Amino acid sequence: MKFKFTLLELLVVIAIIAILASILLPALSQAREKSRQIVCMNNLKQIGLSILMYANENNGYIPPYQAESPARHWCYNPDKAYLKDYIKVATVGDDARGTIFSCPSNPTTKFGYGGGVGASYAINLGVAYSDGWGNQSWRVSRILHPSKTMLVNDSGSLWTRGLTGEADNGNIIFPHNGGANILFVDAHVGWILEQAYRAGTQTWESSPPSRYIGWP
Fold this sequence. Notes:
Layout: H1 7-56, E1 66-67, E2 72-73, E3 121-124, H2 125-128, E4 150-154, E5 159-160, E6 179-184, E7 189-193, H3 194-199
Parallel strand pairs: 3-5
Antiparallel strand pairs: 1-2, 3-4, 4-6, 6-7
């Protein structure tokens, strides 16, 4: 004798499957995002080490965001980037996905500035910019609290600026389970929730007050 499910039994099974899916899918999504966050943190750690190597060979100075004459930038192009001797830098217009400058949660398809291209990470102008074109930046040794001073962060731009909790026009984004990865001047990488960043409840400043930075 063949066993047959009644319509009610089928509906109960379908309901149970739907309930289990609603419980498991968010957890799987968070786990997948956590793995992307770890890749992003490793990217930032490598960028941080390259910046410290640059500083070690340039009188302690953090690489400027950019310079006007000659035209240079902190992370692109290979023949002009300040970091070109320490890390594989990106080329404007190239597909940056899968490179160290592309976060898997916020992948950059075309690397550069302007014209519809962008980057996954931004450098803090508070320490990488001191005159009109970034020709002079800060010495690492003059930053009084390097473990609290942001250097590079998750972004949709190439630079960030502004105090914690201040409107920043998207220069810091929060793609990792509601938070952002941040590289600090001492080369450690941390994660901060957007709510904490906006509320200013953390001491992590992107453009810290004078007590954090001395003169170059």
